[in-house]
What does this fold into?
Amino acid sequence: MDKNLRNKILITLAFLFAYRILAYVPVPGVNVDVIKDFFNSNSNNALGLFNMFSGNAAERLSIISLGIMPYITSSIIMELLAATFPNLGKLKKERDGMQKYMQIIRYLTILITLVQAIGVSVGLSSLNGAGGEKAIMIDLNLFIAIAAVSMLVGTMLLMWIGEQITQRGIGNGISLIIFAGIVSGIPSAIGSTVNLVNTSELNFLVVIAILFVILLTVGIIIFVEMGERRIPISYSRKVVMENQHKRIMNYIPIKVNLSGVIPPIFASAILMFPSTILQASTNKYVQMVSDILNPNGYMFNFLTFIFIIFFAYFYASIVFNTKDISENLKRQGGFIPGVRPGETTAMYLNEVASRLTFTGAIYLGLISTIPWVLVKFMGVPFYFGGTSVLIVVSVALDTMRRIEAQIYMNKYQTLSAVGL
It folds into this structure.
C-alpha cells in the first residue's frame, strides 16, 4: 500500500477513535446510571433513534451527546435559504464567499446546539431513577450552564474532526462520523439479540428473517448505488486533435441516486430535532405530538418517506446543475448527438435527471421505511430501520471509491515519475 494512502487511512482512524473516546466523557454533574436506564426504557422511540445516531453517547449524556445533528440541521437551513435567496446562493459559489457561507453555518450550529442543550438540561431536571435518584446531582442553574458549554464544545469538536477527516483523511468526515456512530452500536445490538433468543423473548426464526431483510436491503442498496445512466458526448474534430494525447470524457454519468445518502440524514435530523425537544415536556398535548413522532409509529415513517423524496429532488438539483454542465460542454466543443448545444442540452439533461431522481427518491423512501414495516410485523422489541443500513452501506461504498481513486492516482504519479 502506498505510504500517502496509508497515512490518510491512519489519520481517519485516529480521528474516529478520538470521536469514540469523546462519547465516553459525560457532562459534569449528572447521574449516568439514571440516564442510561431512561434510554434503555425508551430504546424503541425517538430517543432510541437519537441515541443510535449519536453512537450511544446520548445514554451517557456525553459532551457529544447531541452528535453532529445540529451541524446538519444548520446546513439544511442554509441550503434552503441559498436556494431561496439568489445573493446567498451566489455567495456560496464564490471562493471567498464560501468561507463566509461556512462561517454562517458554524454560527447557526452554535445557536441550535445551545437551544438543544438547554432543552435537554431542563428536561433532565424532572427525571428520576427507579429508586428515586435524581438525574442531576448539582444545582439546576449551574448544571444548565455547564451542560450548555460542555455540549457546545463537544459539537464544535465533532465539526472540527469531520473537517479534518475530509481535508486530511479518506472520505467525507461528517458522513464517517455518523457511520462510526451507527456501527459502534452493532456489537451491543448483536449481544442483546442473542440474550433475547436465549431467554425465548425472540424466536430464532425471526432472527433469521431479520438477517434476510438486512442482507436483501444491503444487496438492493449496492445494486442501485452502482447504477448510472451514461449520456454519450461527441467532440469536434479540432478538439479531438488538440487533445489526442489526453483522455477526453466521452459520456456524462448520471447516477440513479444523485443525492446519495443526504436525504435520509436530512429527514432524520429534521424529525429528531422536535422529538428531542418535545420529550422534555410533561404537557399531555405535547406528549401526544411526541408520541405521533415516535420512530416506531406509522406517522414518523410516513413523514420520513415524504421528507426523503423532497430532499432527494432538492439536493439533486444542487449537485447536478444542468445549466452549468451544458455551458461547459459548449465551451469545450462537446455536444450530445441529436441534441442542440446550449439551452436545449440543459433541458434534455434536466429531463433525464428528473426521471432518474424520481426513481432514486422512491428507492430511498422505500429503503428507509419498508424494512421497518417488515420488522414491525415480526414483533421485534427494538428499533430497526432501513435508514441506518442505507447510511452505513452508502458511506462504505463512497469511502471504497475514494480509496480506489487514491490508489489509481498514486499509480499514475508513479508512472509519470519513472517516465513510463
In short: The first helix runs from residue 3 to 22. The two ends are 20 Å apart (CA to CA).
